[in-house]
Amino acid sequence: MAEEFIRKDELANEITRPEILRNQPYYRQKGKRFTENMAGYAMLAKPGPPEAWMDTLPDVHRLDKAQMVMLIEENLIPREAGIQCLRALKEMEKDGQEGVLKARAEAGAGLYSGENYLISKLGEAVGGWVHLGRSSGDEVTGTLRMKIRKEILETLEKTIDYRETLLKVAEQHVETPFPTYTGFQAAQITSLAHYLLDFTYKAAHACKKLRDDYAEVNRSPMGAAIGTGSDFPLNRERVAELLGFDSVITNTHEAISSEDKTFMIEVLGTLALLVAPIEKLASWMFFFHSTEFGFVLGADRFCETSSIMPQKRIPFLMYNVASMVHVVYSSCVENILEETALICWPRGVAIKRAFVNAKDALECGRLNIGTMKINKERVLENLKFNWCCATDLAGALVRQHGVSWRTAYSIVAIICRKAEDKNIPSSALNNQMIEEASMEHMGKKLSLSEATIKKVQDPMERIKARTLTGGPAPDNVRKMIQELKQGVEGDKEFLKTAREKLAEADKKLDKAVDRLLSK
């Protein structure tokens, strides 16, 4: 026997966490299918450790009440037994949600805490009716969907706050020149507002995905049991209505198998899409915060210093964003592996961790952008030295002399090479440099007017010149800001409506319970 290879003290003390041992669902207690209770280690998977299900207990409570209301209304169980069960569930609420959590935690078994509680209070002949027509399959995915839809709305709210902060800062810097970088080298000139709007649009796109995910998640699996439904005529639509779902998942097998391979992975994909640009922006701000650049300065309350180097000013808020985003990524991988495994029990731990860190990353990102100071003088000093104006110089040669783009490009490339060799800043550009480079490349001297050269060197002029759709010209940027503000208002309205519908469903459930108890 395998027991021969296990010490006796290990058999007697299989697990040292007593809260796990309380998790024995009533249906699994010894004397029914098995002669022994489930071992503690086995219950780490189902129903799992408390951290896997404690925060779902309020939704489990709603689910039990909605189930019992439907069973009574459809005359599927003895009315008096149903009323007794509802009254017992209602008694859990006498101390509010804390009372519900306490009673269910003491009853143990997580998802099955309602049945454990009712049978302990009322006996199996009465409390045993609550599970009619349902299974772990629809209960697990039902409570996960209820939890995740709230997390989606909270994340949407945090993303709205993040976008509003970006827009507020952008409005202040429509005419603040700022360099763009590619390959960590100075590229071209834009405005800080235009730069920030890039990340605002990305966050808006993620909000659209969150809204789509909410529509998918907010469908009820209840009544699907473990894939074929039930031969009892359950009213699935009524349970969905009482729990605030928009509809039922029609196919009963899809309703319970979808938890493994679709909606949770889709939601995690959206969270990854949401946080990736937040980390990118924080990382670039960290780069610009360095002593070599000094373009931005983090607020004192969000900075750390060194225990040995007192000159250090470390923007820890930006560090935090990166750490949180990486937890989201790792949670995505964990969930995909967990939810697609053939024999893995879905606990929903990874997705909860992902939501926590995504919301924290949004808040840290918002505080970082909303409180940092911009050192405009250092930015302009940088722009005077680097050659971000090179593309515009080539464009001026095309317009004034009619040479092809590649010819103009080649002339400016020679100018940049020689400027690099002699450490000449772009602010020192003159006609002699243009003539020498054009002569070298095409055997002909080209030159530009002093006014044109000054215009090429002026960062603000380079911004104003980009008037094409989506470019950084101030009027364009102001239009984009207004467009993005309208998007924020639309998402606020969606959030308000979704929360109102959930609150209305809670009221409807409470009224249905009170109505049945008053008869």
Structure description:
This protein is mainly alpha-helical and 519 residues long. The chain folds into three domains: 18-132, Fumarase C, Chain B, domain 1, CATH 1.10.275; 137-230 and 242-378, Fumarase C, Chain A, domain 2 (Up-down Bundle), CATH 1.20.200.10; 386-465, Orthogonal Bundle (Ribonucleotide Reductase Protein R1, domain 1). Helices cover 65% and strands 4% of the residues. The protein contains 22 helices and six strands. The chain has helices spanning 8-12, 18-21, 50-53, 57-73, 79-91, 96-107, 113-122, 124-127, 136-172, 192-217, 236-242, 252-261, 263-289, 316-340, 349-371, 376-385, 390-401, 405-422, 431-442, 450-457, 459-465, 474-518; strands spanning 177-182, 185-191, 219-220, 247-248, 296-297, 373-374. A two-stranded antiparallel sheet has the order 1-2. The protein has a two-stranded parallel sheet with strand order 3-4. It is elongated and about 100 Å long. The model is unreliable at 1-15 (pLDDT under 50).
In short:
This protein is mainly α.
Q: How many domains, in number, for the residues?
A: 3
Q: Which residues form runs of ≥5 with pLDDT under 50?
A: 1-15
Inertia-based shape: elongated
The fraction of residues assigned to DSSP E strands is under 5%
Can you tell me the CATH architecture of the largest domain?
A: Up-down Bundle
Can you say what the CATH homologous superfamily of the largest domain is? Answer: Fumarase/aspartase (Central domain)
Rounded Rg: 32 Å
What is the helical fraction, as a range of percent?
55-70%
Return the CATH class of the largest domain. Mainly Alpha
Strand order of the largest sheet: 1-2
Say what the CATH topology of the largest domain is: Fumarase C, Chain A, domain 2
SSE run: HHHHHHHHHEEHEHEHHEHHEHHHHHHH
Q: What does the main sheet amount to? A: 2 strands, antiparallel
**How many helix segments?**
22
Q: What is the distance, rounded to the nearest whole angstrom, between the alpha carbons of the first and last residues?
A: 59 Å
Give the rounded overall mean pLDDT. 92
**Count the strands?**
6
Q: Please state the structural category.
A: mainly alpha
